[in-house]
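Q: How would the structure tokens look for this protein?
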Amino acid sequence: MTPVTVGTELPPLHLPEISRTTLALFAGASGDHNRIHIDIDAAREAGLDDVFAHGMLSMAYLGRLLTGWVDQSAIRRFAVRFTAITPVHAAPVCHGRVTAVDDIDGERVATLAVTVTLADGTTTLRGEAAVALPGA
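A: Here is the predicted structure in token form.
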């Protein structure tokens, strides 16, 4: 791993378009069968044009961004806030940027600002993660 400093950007994770199949598979895997994510009639009853992705699907993608950079066992904290919906057919992109590097309890820990964005510039999720850096 190259030296990590404040401002280090993780390589963005570009994801495929969210399909109805993606939503159905995630509902089964997560146990979240909220109809608004998989049933267009339920979405329309709620005043929406179509179904939209589970917020936790975006968080899972951010987890994949992190584990593409460090081992899962290095994640010390991971918290997010959902800021907008991810519509069906959107192609999310996950981003991470180091905002601090500190020595905590004998580990060198990087704090990261993490986001998920869409092609139109909408940020659907933002949060923070802390990871122990290798070789500390």
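The first strand starts at residue 13 and ends at 14.

The beta strands are 13-14, 75-82, 93-104, 107-117, 123-132.

Upvote if useful.
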